[in-house]
Amino acid sequence: MRSRVSDIESRLSIPPTGWYQSLTAAGLRNPEVHGPARYWLQVEGSFTRALQKQCSHSFHVEVRREGFATPTQEEARRLHIPHRQNAWIREVCLCGDNQPWVLARTVIPLRCLEGEGRRLLHLGNRPLGAYLFTSPHWQRGPLETGLCKPGIPGQPELARRSLFSGHNSSLLVGEYLLPALFQRNTL
Ligand SMILES: C=C(O[C@@H]1C=C(C(=O)O)C=C[C@H]1O)C(=O)O
């Protein structure tokens, strides 16, 4: 039998998103970025760690899909890779206390998968952050703020994204905040 969290989770999707270089720039379009989600749009360090600190009893990663696929044209441009080149694309739901809190989409170009980067193919339910923040090779670039196209209530409206640069290549991590995360009155 499917669990309740899987049922809620299966109705969620990553919406088309417009990306801005800063929270301030996004705020001119949608002042909601300065509301309760602001902390999550700006928190530094491992996002997984920050979420885990907010959990009362459990945190887990559910893989929604993972495999080789073509990134969007915008993602390919951001990563400086040819636009029809396949990449390893990982989409997960980060759940706190059995509630879906964040959807994440990571685009990992082929060059990142060489050498020890092969481990990225086998993360499964282990959080990517645990890998990126324990390996000395990866450096996070500046955070962008995303405004998702207006959609159905309960779907992500705000997002954040950044490039992580390794030896000779970068990967792109997008995190889409679900209202359930920042509408809890705990921060
Ligand atoms: C990049 C991080 O990894 C987190 C875990 C992810 C995964 O397992 O796919 C994706 C995005 C994250 O928020 C992080 O913890 O900061």
TrEMBL record:
One of its GO terms (biological process) is pyruvate biosynthetic process. It is an enzyme of class 4 (lyase). Substrate binds at residues 90, 128, 175. Transmembrane segments: none annotated. Its EC number is 4.1.3.40. It is found in: Cytoplasm. GO terms for cellular component: cytosol. InterPro entries: Chorismate--pyruvate_lyase, Chorismate_lyase_/UTRA_dom_sf. Gene3D superfamilies: Chorismate lyase-like. It comes from the Bacteria. GO terms for molecular function: chorismate lyase activity. Pfam families: Chor_lyase (PF04345). Pathway: Cofactor biosynthesis; ubiquinone biosynthesis. It catalyses: chorismate = 4-hydroxybenzoate + pyruvate. SUPFAM superfamilies: Chorismate lyase-like. Keywords: Cytoplasm, Lyase, Pyruvate, Ubiquinone biosynthesis. PANTHER family: CHORISMATE PYRUVATE-LYASE. Belongs to the UbiC family. Removes the pyruvyl group from chorismate, with concomitant aromatization of the ring, to provide 4-hydroxybenzoate (4HB) for the ubiquinone pathway. HAMAP family: UbiC. This is Probable chorismate pyruvate-lyase.
